Amino acid sequence: MTEESGSSRYPARNLWSGVLFGIGAAAFVDEAVFHQLLHWHHFYDRSTPAVGLISDGMFHAFSWFATVAALFLFADLRRRRSLHLVRWLGGVLLGAGGFQLYDGVIQHKVLSLHQIRYVPEVLPYDITWNVIALLILLAGVALVVRTRVHAGTPTGEHA
Amino acid sequence: MLEHRSWADGLWMAVGMLLLLLYLAGVLAGRRRGRGWPAARTIAWSGGVLCCLAATAGPLARIGQTSFSAHMAGHLLLGMLAPLLLVLGAPVTVALRGLPLQHARRLSRVLARPELAVLTHPVTAALLDVGGLWLLYGTPLFGWMHASPAGHLVAQIHVLVAGYLFTFSLVGVDPTGHRADIRLRSAVLVAALAAHGILAKRLYVDPPAGVSVADGERAAMVMFYGGDLVEIVLVVAVCLEWYRRTAPRSVGTSAGEGHGPAVVRLGQIPSRASDPGRQTE
């Protein structure tokens, strides 16, 4: 192995580190901006069904883990000189867009955990939220596909 | 109820002081044999004992008799922060270093027993810890426990011991013959955090009998966000262990410790810096 930037090594680890960080970052923005600063989201709606609460709890716990694990994976890629920043960013967008879409469609609507904002007409908020999520997701897919490693390249996963 | 508490206060103070003195005696005995001990671990252990006492014998414990949110702050101290600090104090390693050789051998034989493997398995420990909380706060158990001083003491001891076992099963500081796979530990950690957060939100709408709405809501917030703070340290500890263990050989890690007795495997194995300049894998 050479010392040059390993854009073809650890492709999956680069992707996963990004995806996990994206999920964590989206969850952090959700908590910090929409719950704490704007107070748009509610801690709990009295009408929330149990399954919504479980989904929210699992995602909340997982997003903590995802953020920390992603940063350790990032540090690991750096010390192995195998960080591929574009692919990592693709992962971030994939994770963040995916989480926001899940939050906007499944948690807000299907499981009716809480609404984006408690206003009479919530539809424009829902559409804006989910279209942004979709755009982030698609940008992530584009970056990840572009940085795909072609078959035959040796990879060293799972240290 | 208050007059009943004084004997329990005294008991906690006595046990806390004993735990502190035993630990210091172990550190000093180890030092006499020429084995140093990081001050940070001693500080962690002392901090853990202090958290226990703050939750059980201090003014917080007294306010907790009437205020559910103060009770919940005490629960965080006793069931989460104290266990974390106590585990980081690595008391088993202190004992193995401080005890005379034959006693240390006996201790490591006890540690290798299959019953302990079951108790310190992450799944068992998580069920004992978070499952116990669900039983305590989700059933009328809470009312019964608070009605009797002995019941209250049993609940406190359970919260502390289960919290310790849970943290011990996840964070590899002390040696153990059986440390679960890191992926299993991560999964259990996430599931336990989720169950803790879900219970907090449940308490938000459905606090135990006799707790006012405002007090119940405040307690749920304390449990949810306070729990997050301790949990993130647990996540960092688990990830840090992975990071150190998987270090490529060309990367040196700060290996200030790890000279544990050879009888038992150390959960945390800092890689020695060797062969600099060569890229592995």
Question: Which helices and strands appear, and what pairs or packs with what?
Answer:
The complex is a heterodimer of chains A (159) and B (281).
Chain A: H1 11-37, H2 50-79, H3 85-110, H4 123-146
Helix pairs in contact in A: 1-2, 1-3, 3-4
Chain B: H1 2-32, H2 39-56, H3 59-63, H4 68-88, H5 91-98, H6 101-111, H7 114-119, H8 122-138, H9 141-147, H10 149-170, H11 182-205, H12 213-245
Compact summary:
With 159 residues, chain A is an all-alpha fold. Chain A has four helices and no strands.
In words, what does this structure look like?
The complex is a heterodimer of chains A (159) and B (281). With 159 residues, chain A is mainly α. Chain A has helices at 11-37, 50-79, 85-110, 123-146. Chain A has one domain (11-146). Chain A is elongated and about 50 Å long. In chain A, 42% of the residues are buried. Chain B has one domain. In chain B, helix 1 runs antiparallel to helix 2 (39-56) and helix 8 runs antiparallel to helix 10 (149-170).
The level of helicity of chain A is 55-70%
Overall morphology of chain A: elongated
First-to-last CA distance of chain A:
15 Å
* Poorly predicted regions of chain A: 1-5, 151-159
Apparent shape of chain B: globular
Q: How much β-strand is present in the residues of chain A?
A: under 5%
Largest sheet of chain A: none
Helix content of chain B: over 70%
What is the total domain count of chain A?
Answer: 1
| Count of individual domains of chain B | 1
For the sheet with most strands of chain B, the description reads: none
Bin the strand percentage of chain B: under 5%
